[in-house]
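Reviewer has doubts. Consider these C-alpha cells.
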Amino acid sequence: MPPHPSTEHTGHPRRWAILGVLVFSLLVVVLDNTILNVALRTIADPRRGLGATQSELEWSINSYTLVFAGLLFTFGVIGDRLGRKRVLIAGMAVFGLSSLASAYAQTPEQLIAARALMGLGGAAIMPQTLSIITNVFDPRERGRAIGVWSGAVGLAVAIGPVTGGLLLSHFWWGSVFLVNVPIVAVGLAGMLWLVPESRNPDPGRIDPLGVLLSIVGLVALSYGIIEGGERGRWLEPAVLGPIAVGLAVIALFAWHEARTDHPAFDVRLFRDPRLSVAVGSIAFCFFATSGVFFFGSFYLQSVRGLSPLQAGLMMLPFAAAQLIFSPRSALMVRRYGARAVCTTGMLLVTAAMLGYQLCDENTPLWVFGAVAFVQGSGMANVMPPATESVMSALPREKAGAGSALNNTARQVAVAMGVAVLGSLLASVYRGEMRGPLDRLPAGVPEDVRHVAGESIEGTLSLAGRLGPAGEALIAPAREAFVHGMHVAAVGSAVMAFLGALLVLRWMPGRSAPEPTGPASQAAPAEQRL
C-alpha cells in the first residue's frame, strides 16, 4: 500500500492530540509520587495518619519502586508484542483500582501492599507512552514531542505537591491517592477514543528465559539497594547478598541475550554510544536528584515549619524550569549538539546540588526556590536529549523495550539514590543527635531514644510528648538534619559531575543526517501503527 501523502513525512495525523492523552496518562504516575512526598509527614502522624515509622514510610515509596523497576522491562517487551494501547489501558485500570486501595488502607502494611500494586500498573503505563510517541511522530518532530513528554514530569512536580497540600489541608491523608481515580477515568476515555494500537509487526519467538532473568535481576538488585538504605549499613550479608545476586543475574541476562537468536532485548545495541551514554546520563542525573525530593519535603516542613501546601508551592520553581526548558531542548540540540546540551545540563544539576549548601534553618526561602529552578533547568536539558538518543538508537518496532530501558535506568537510579543518600543523611543525623538524646532524663527508655534518633520526625515527636523537657531537642534536631542534608547534597553533586564527565567524553555531538533506509523511514500510519 503506497504511503498516504499526509502521513509519509509527518507521522500520525492526530499525533499532537495523542501526545496530549499520553502526557495526561503520564501525569498520574508522576503525580502519585510527588503527592506522596508531601504526605509522608501526615502519614507518620499516629492521630492524623497511620502512625507509620520511618522504615514503613520508606517502604511505602520503595514497594512501588521495587515492583515498578522490576517489571518495566517486561511490560515494554509485552507491549511490543501484544499491543501498546492494550497494555496501557490495562495498566491504567490497575493503577486506578490500587489507588482506591491505597486511599482506604487501614495500616501501614496495607498501604505498602497497595503501593506495590500501583507499581505494577505504573510499570505497564510508563513504557507504552514513550513507545507510542516514537511510533506516531516522524523523527524530525520526535525530539520536540519527547521534550513535551519530559516537561510533563515538571508539570506533575508542580501539580503534585500543591494538590497534595490542598487536599491535606481539607481532607484526610487518603485523599492524595483518591485524586488519581478521576485522572485515570479521563485518561482511559482519551485512550479509547484517540490512541491507535501499535505493536512489533514481526515479534518473532518470545524469550521467556530473558524476561525471567530481567525480572529476577532487577528485583534482587533493587531490593539489595533499598535494604542497604533501610539498614544504613552496606557491608552486611542481607544487603550485599541481594545486590550480588542481582548483578550476577543481570550479567547472565546480558550473556544470554547476546547469544540467543530471538532476544527480548539485543544487548549488542549498547555498543552504540547514543544508547549506552544516554542511559548512563539518565541514571547519574536521577541518582543525583532523587535525594533532594526525599529530604526536601522534610527540610521545608520539619525544619522550616511550612505546611504541606506551602511546601508544595516551594517546588513550583523546579516545575516552571521543566516546563520552560524541556520543550525547547530539541532546538538546543539541533543548534549545539546533544553532547553540549547534556553536559551543560549535568553541570547545572551539579551547581544546584552545591547550591543546597546555602539552605539552613534561617536562609530566606527564595534561595531554596532559586536553587530548585537551576536544578529543574539542568534536568530539562538532560532528560529529553538523552531519551531521544536512546529511542533513536532503536528500530521503531523495539520502541517498547527501548522505553522500558530508559525508565528502568531512571527507577533503579532513584532507588539507589534514595537508599544511598538517605542512609548517608540518616547516619549523619544519628551521629549528631547522640549527645542531645543521651542528655534526656533517665526515665526515657532506651528504645524510645533509639527511635527518636533515627529521623527528625521521630525526634520532634518525642520532643512534643516530653513537653518543656523536650524543647532542648528541637534546635539540635534541625541543625543535625540540615548538616545531613548538606552532606547528602555534596554526594549528589559528585554524582552529577561524574555524569557530566561521562557525557562530555563519550556522547556523540551533533546528530548525523537522518538515515533514509527502510528501518528509519516514517512508514504510513496504517502500516506503522
